[in-house]
Amino acid sequence: FAELHAAVPGLPLASSRVLPGVVLRRDFAAYCPTDGELRALLVTESLRPTLMGPGVEFIVDSEGQYQASLCWIAKRTEVLMKHLQSNNVKLLLSSAKQEEVVVYYAKLYGVSVVECLSSEEMALISEITGVSPYTPFGDNVDREITETTVVTFCQPLLLVSKRCVHIGFISACAFQPHCLILCGPVDGVNEQRAAALQEAFTMLQQLFKAVDQ
Where does the source fall among the domains of life (predicted)? Predict the structure, then answer.
């Protein structure tokens, strides 16, 4: 319930509504508008390539080596974004904060980025879509990306002064996600209404569970 409702103070109660899909309460790190369906990818780590692996120490002896390292990272990041583009990935949903170089090339190749998602939000998206987070492929840039999910829409949503991301997922199960936008004059009123609604949903869950048995 916490991930499927948003409390918005400063608006009348009558402004409350139910929206299809999921509302993520953060702004785009990169937004590239697109029409129609698109493919999204979940990641749990930065997509910026690293210069060393586990147990390997990388030493830079000069400014020239440092600049060459940055150039290599930029080129590898560009290759990655080209690979995402060739697999029709237009949206990156990340629990990690992505490096500036990743966001730069994402914009360049038309990939929207939403970062710093909570573990609960990632788990909810995985449950809805049936898709697990993608693991970067290292040097294997030719591997087909199969961990994508279809998104029917992806757009900014402004809740008073809070910029959010509104996404429509095609569900892999019977559950069709909707988000409840609770409006009220102050936070306290919204908190009371949210608690009452959560209790009501809990009661309905228990009721239908008893009927199933």
Answer: Eukaryota
Domain covering 22-173 assigned CATH 3.50.7.10 in the classification: yes
Euclidean distance between CA atoms 2 and 9, whole angstroms: 16
Q: Which residues pair with 178 in a beta bridge?
A: 20
Record the tokens describing residue 139, joined without a space. 């040097």
What are the tens digits of pLDDT across the range 40-76? Answer: 999 998 888 765 555 555 566 667 766 777 787 888 8
> How far from chain centre, in Å, is Cα 82?
20
Only one residue has tokens 């994402």, namely 106
Written as one letter, the residue type at 21 is G
At 96, give phi and psi (nearest 5°).
Answer: -95, 155
Pairing of strands 38-43, 148-159: antiparallel
* Integer Cα distance of 14 and 142 in angstroms: 52
166 contacts 31 by C-beta, under 8 angstroms? no
Q: How many CB atoms lie within 10 A of CB 154?
A: 24
Work out the number of other CB atoms within 10 angstroms of the CB of residue 100. 9
pTM: 0.82
Other beta carbons within 10 Å of 126: 15
User: What average pLDDT score do residues 137-152 get?
Assistant: 75
CB 36 within 8 A of CB 206: no
In terms of Cβ atoms closer than 10 Å to its own Cβ (0-12, 13-18, 19+), residue 197 is middle
Residue ranges, comma separated, of all CATH 3.50.7.10 domains in the chain are: 22-173
- Residue 145 burial by CB count (10 A; 0-12/13-18/19+): exposed, middle or buried? middle
